[in-house]
Amino acid sequence: MAQALFDSAAISYDQEFSHTFVGREQRKRVYDWLEKKKILASSPLSILELNCGTGMDAIYFTQKGHRVVATDISNAMLEQARIKANKNLLQVDFQVLDIKNLHQMEDRYDLIFSNFGGLNCIEPSDWKKLFSESQRLMQKNGKLIGVLMSKKCWIENLYFLFRADFSKIGRRNRNKECLVHVNGSLVPTWYYSPSEVAQMANPYFNVRWHKPIGIGIPPSYLSNRVEKNRILKSMAILLEKLLGSSSLFSNFADHYIICLEKK
Ligand SMILES: C[S@@+](CC[C@H](N)C(=O)[O-])C[C@H]1O[C@@H](n2cnc3c(N)ncnc32)[C@H](O)[C@@H]1O
């Protein structure tokens, strides 16, 4: 079911997210953290990417000289990713994989990476297996880095308040499945705070750090409005710079990046 939902979003995904103001700026923040924390600094890493979508990050990592196995549940997303890799004359190993089926994977990786909410498609009962299988697939000192949607995005709540859409205020923070619109379909989504992730990961991973992504840059459905307004756009970028380094704000941003290290 999840596959069909995302298949229908594949062709327009880059246009509606990756190449928008929000998509570009939030991804840039993710790369800034990978850089600042020297995650990609050591010589060629072996990277397993989960929910790679249209391959933006797989291509970035490959261009930096790392070996990438990039996976997604959606064949149509992978098709877009393959086209992109071919255009860039890059060799990336793209494979269909449901995050819930990590037991199907072999090999060992230095880094398991999941960007922009793939892990929010995983319900609470599936996390134990995700962590135990990720641990099995990792080299010593291996890291699992996820970028997840947070529970208390302040910009989203303010936006719903201004629209007087009161039923949606705090929708991410209800500790139950939330149905989110993706290209006309409703996708079951679960939101987790960094401390909830840390708790679930505890037997297998320690949290090393987490940081907000999108504390000034808004959620993607506001991209057009902000991009068209010079003042809003500058304010978004400024706020991101001012608040984006403090882990205190991770759970109040649109997303957060969290780094877990194998125990
Ligand atoms: C918001 S997109 C993020 C794509 C990509 N990581 C990026 O940075 O642009 C979410 C992706 O998660 C994938 N996905 C959803 N549920 C999944 C699952 N159970 N296993 C693997 N991939 C999944 C979707 O097909 C989609 O490509």
What features would you highlight for this structure?
about 260 residues, alpha/beta, Rossmann fold, two-stranded antiparallel sheet, 10 helices, globular, binds S-adenosylmethionine
Give a quick rundown of the structure.
With 263 residues, the protein is an alpha/beta fold. Helices cover 38% and strands 23% of the residues.
The CATH H-level superfamily is: Vaccinia Virus protein VP39
One letter per element, helices H and strands E, the order comes to HHHEHEHEEHEHEEHEHHE
| Biggest β-sheet: strands ordered side by side in the sheet | 3-2-1-4-5-9-8
Name the structural class.
alpha/beta
Instruction: Return Rg in Å.
Output: 17 Å
Largest sheet: 7 strands, mixed
Mean pLDDT: 96
Tally of DSSP helical segments: 10
Distance between the termini: 34 Å
Q: What hetero molecules are bound to the protein chains? A: S-adenosylmethionine
Number of extended strands:
9
Oligomer: single chain
Report helical residue fraction.
25-40%
Unreliable residue stretches = none
Roughly what fraction of the amino acids lie in strands?
A: 15-25%
Q: What is the total domain count? A: 1
CATH architecture: 3-Layer(aba) Sandwich
Overview of this protein structure:
The chain has a single domain (2-262), classed as Rossmann fold (3-Layer(aba) Sandwich). Helix 5 links the parallel strand 2 and strand 3. The chain is built from ten helices and nine strands. It has helices spanning 2-7, 10-18, 21-36, 56-63, 75-87, 127-136, 154-162, 194-201, 223-228, 230-243; strands at residues 46-50, 67-72, 93-96, 109-114, 138-149, 178-182, 185-189, 205-213, 255-262. Helices cover 38% and strands 23% of the residues. It has 263 residues and is an alpha/beta fold. A seven-stranded mixed sheet has the order 3-2-1-4-5-9-8, with helices on both faces. The relative contact order is 0.16. Residues 2, 6, 18, 51-53, 56-57, 72-74, 77, 98-100, 115-118, 121 line the site of S-adenosylmethionine (SAM). S-adenosylmethionine is lined by residues 2, 6, 18, 51-53, 56-57, 72-74, 77, 98-100, 115-118, 121.
